[in-house]
Design brief:
This protein has about 110 residues and is α+β, with helices and mostly antiparallel strands. The protein has a domain of about 70 residues. About 20% of the residues lie in helices and about 45% in strands. It contains 1 helix and 6 strands.
């Protein structure tokens, strides 16, 4: 009988050990602003790019653009079409002509699509 009591006590301790180590703190607020770490790779057909905000950002409309966005542990892929307006930072590596884009941008694109 003493063995059963010891096994039950140890089992209860192990079951309660995980919530105790996690802290069970429900008062922590999640971050309101998502982190924009990562990069975005674009390739496709666009309209003529325009510089805005004193040349810090570039904006254009996507006729047919394939994008791949890598964030902090998250990867998104997709196609933009139908003249969607896209605004990205002007620090890109690659080629951006009047009607073509093949470039890598710093930052994630998920929040910049309008």
């Amino acid at each position: 009988m003493k063995k059963i009591f010891v096994y039950v006590a140890v089992s209860m301790l192990l079951l309660l050990l995980v919530p105790i180590t996690v802290g069970m703190n429900t008062s922590q607020q999640p971050d309101k602003k998502p982190m924009d770490l990562g990069w975005t790779f674009l390739k496709g057909i666009i309209t003529r790019p325009n510089l805005i905000h004193g040349g810090n950002d570039v904006t254009f409309r996507a006729i047919y653009v394939h994008y791949k966005t890598h964030g902090f542990g998250v990867t998104q892929k997709g196609v933009l079409r139908g003249l969607q307006l896209i605004t990205l930072p002007n620090d890109y590596l690659g080629m951006m002509n009047n009607h073509m884009v093949f470039a890598k941008f710093n930052g994630r694109m998920g929040t910049q699509i309008q």
